[in-house]
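Continuing the batch. This is chain 6 of the set; chains 1 through 5 are on the previous pages. Same settings as before, nothing changed between runs. Recording input and output for traceability.
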Amino acid sequence: MGYREVAEHAFAEARAFYTGGRKRKDWVGVSEDTAPGPGKSPNKMLLDAEHAKMLEVIEIGDQTGRDLVFELRRSVGAQEFMRSFEAEIAGDCPVRYGEELVRLAVKGANCGELASVAAHAAWAKLGRPDDVKDIAVASLEKPGDHGWCVVGPAAAVASIAGKTIAGLKGVTHSPEPVFAVDAWTNLCCPIGEFHDLVQGRAGKWTTGGKRVSWTGKDGNKKGWYPPSGDYIAAFVGSAIKIQYGLEPYG
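Output for chain 6:
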């Protein structure tokens, strides 16, 4: 079985998980006329209130508590706080986190959650091995803010750490490429093609009036930004971090 087949399977599973739920509120359907400007958050009071509830539930510390957290998550879509509690509420690594997300049918998935769902699907497709260095969740150093799954030969996956998407433009790996599996941008492609394709996505979304929640190029101004411009520049220009599929959090 080649890595392309594994990547395409993982992508299909993650997209099905994404489109079967509720897309994130801070992305789809936000227009230039209705989106708050940089530095403003329309959901701050709601999220603060739900954060307090989540903390109370997490203290339960058992499976019932985790299920309650995800039930709350489904009802309010509070993605910002879920990322802080990955290790406590679901498994100890990206693959286990993705498995838990699928089990609980969580709605409103964010990019990092979709990356974990894809990592779990890729791991299952490979026969659930005890160790994996050919499946990982990639994320970006600040000011970038994105996560996606990567699948490919172990040495090639390791080689992209510390590089940027812009720096990997046109790069090929032999005998097989590293595949970017990104349900959030709706892209599954060799990593060397990711730069141009995601730039195209950002331009299309901007033209369509969509906005993304981001902290800005200096990392200190939370707000709603056009996908093109500073956001996509940080996306393709920030260093890549790698966490292997079964590598424990922390």
